[in-house]
Specification:
133 residues, mainly alpha, 6 helices, globular
Length: 133
């Protein structure tokens, strides 16, 4: 059975991402977009997370398990550790990457700016109708 290592605070997650296939983000409190979730999605990791960890990020089909119930989270962790459902894991990773591309790639970002601010493309990302912005 694979082991779990609790490290506490780490300065950078970069070294850890290269060692794991699965990431658990059991947040219970928080607001806004969770960049730790996006970071794990970008790296193609299987995600088990709570609803708080998914806020502002993507739909549930992008995650191996999205639950606030400890029993469901535990079962998903075991399922991933034992590779019991590789097709579900692969589909979730692919959905996550497609969601990120659709939402955070430069063209999507520029389109969003244009929709919100009425910007026309001028300097790489977009421009504002006023010269001071």
């Amino acid at each position: 059975m694979p082991s779990v290592q609790v490290t506490g605070y780490v300065k950078s997650m970069e070294d850890y991402y290269s060692l794991v296939d699965n990431v658990i983000i059991p947040l219970r409190l928080g607001a806004g977009v969770k960049f730790k979730t996006i970071e794990a999605m970008i790296r193609g990791k299987n995600l088990v997370l709570t609803s708080v960890a998914s806020e502002g990020v993507a739909a549930s089909e992008c995650f191996f398990c999205l639950s606030d119930e400890a029993v469901e989270i535990s079962a998903a962790m075991v399922e991933l550790a034992l590779n019991l459902n590789p097709e579900k894991a692969r589909a979730a990773r692919e959905n996550a990457l497609q969601a990120l591309i659709g939402r955070y790639e430069l063209d999507s970002y520029k389109s969003g700016l244009n929709t919100v601010y009425g910007c026309a493309d001028r300097s790489g990302l977009g421009s504002s109708p006023s010269a001071g912005v």
